[in-house]
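INFO  loader      accepted 1 record
INFO  loader      residues=115
INFO  predictor   begin
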Amino acid sequence: MVYGVNIRILLRLTNVSEKNTSGGIVALITIDLIIIITIIIIIAIIIIIAIIIIIAIIIIIIVVVVVVIVVVCLTVFVCVKRLCESMSSKQCVCVCVCVCVRVWDNDYLLNDVDK
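INFO  predictor   done
INFO  writer      dumping tokens
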């Protein structure tokens, strides 16, 4: 058996006589536990790093989307500003928001291209 061979090798490495097999088995179990705990710690570190990377990617995506929306809305605001000169500030904001929402509406863009 492979297990028996491992115990004999371990007994020779730990200088335990082959008659005292209980000490060898305890040493083998101790080494196995150390290896298992090390693997669990490595897996935990990898999972924590993966979670941090995923959170960073989500934050970057949110920032990029917000920046794009702000830039588009500011561009629309500059374009609509001339139309807003005769309106009150509330009406102007409403027009800018409505136009900005329509720009982000894919159906509106597709219908506009078809015309």
